């Protein structure tokens, strides 16, 4: 009977057993994967706590926003800064600046991921219109020829 030590190691994601598997990431245990919600929330909470503790340090805010952006959670960052802007007039100016930064980051991300509309639907529509026109002309010709008899 073969035990776990006798089994071959799992191949790398590309199927080649000679290719090393990626090293686990600090948050997730797997390279490039999204961490579980609990770990992600802890990381975001820690970064937010640093940003709040160092409110006048622009670098702390940049790091928090970058972390949120890397996990697709700019909405969470925006919500935190909006709550500060609405509840704390002394910190509202910095919060507004960070909200502007978040919006700019989101717009840049949208621009990068934007795709141009394909030509395929236009060609399909043109082909369908051509077939319809030929069909209508054929019916009109048939009716006209039938009326000539």
Give descriptors for this structure.
149 residues, mainly alpha
Provide a descriptive summary of the structure in words.
There is one protein chain. With 149 residues, the protein is mainly α. The chain has a domain at 33-115. The chain contains five helices and no strands. Helix 2 runs parallel beside helix 4 (92-113) and helix 3 (74-87) packs antiparallel against helix 4 (92-113). Mean pLDDT is 79; it is low at 1-33.
The best one-word shape is rod-shaped
Mean pLDDT: 79
Number of helices: 5
Would you tell me the structural class of the helices and strands? mainly alpha
Helix fraction, binned, reads 55-70%
Q: What is the rounded Rg?
A: 30 Å
> Spans of 5+ residues with little confidence (pLDDT < 50)?
1-33
Spatial separation of the terminal alpha carbons: 91 Å
**Helix-strand pattern, N to C?**
HHHHH
Strand content: under 5%
Largest sheet: none
How many runs of DSSP E, i.e. beta strands?
0
In short:
By secondary structure, the chain is mainly alpha-helical. It has helices at 37-53, 58-70, 74-87, 92-113, 120-148.
Please give the structural blueprint.
Blueprint: H1 37-53, H2 58-70, H3 74-87, H4 92-113, H5 120-148
């Amino acid at each position: 009977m073969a035990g776990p030590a006798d089994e071959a190691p799992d191949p790398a994601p590309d199927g080649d057993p000679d290719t090393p598997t990626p090293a686990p990431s600090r948050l997730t245990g797997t390279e490039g994967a999204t961490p579980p919600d609990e770990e992600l929330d802890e990381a975001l909470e820690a970064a937010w706590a640093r940003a709040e503790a160092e409110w006048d340090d622009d670098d702390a805010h940049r790091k928090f926003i970058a972390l949120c952006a890397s996990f697709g959670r700019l909405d969470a960052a925006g919500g935190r800064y909006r709550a500060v802007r609405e509840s704390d007039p002394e910190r509202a100016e910095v919060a507004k600046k960070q909200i502007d930064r978040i919006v700019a980051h989101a717009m840049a991300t949208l621009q990068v991921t934007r795709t141009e509309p394909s030509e395929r639907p236009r060609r399909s529509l043109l082909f369908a219109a051509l077939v319809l026109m030929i069909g209508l002309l054929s019916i009109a010709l048939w009716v006209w020829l039938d009326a000539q008899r």
